[in-house]
Amino acid sequence: MINQSLxxxxxxxxxxxxxxxxxxLRISKDKLENMVEKSELGSEVIRAYRDxxxxxxxxxxxxxxxxxxxxKNKPEVxxxxxxxxxxxxxxxxxxxxxxxxxxLKPDFKDALYEKGVALHEKGRTKEAMEYWQRAxxxxxxx
Length: 142
Description:
The chain is mainly α. The protein is 75% helix and 0% strand.
């Protein structure tokens, strides 16, 4: 699980790869900052995303977890946890977190797309294509 990955110090080993992986996931700092600024997220969630963008994944995860303890119905928070899991290579957790985000907000284009990425990395390409098509249907702006 993701907490085990965090506890084993894998974040420091992988911190240098974060920017590259963010690029691989088609996630840019500008894009996430734009999403954060346009949404009505609280300052705590904004800080979690900024930490994520700066490669401070453990800090980001701790904030997301605190927010979820207070309110489990924020799709952007589950999406953030999915991104961290994807960056750490915990594909099963990423898929679960993206699915939770999609359940709360069925037209969440980015969560649809990234769930497709996680499924593809697990070799479930047919399912991945379905999520990418759904994301495209929602007019995802790459």
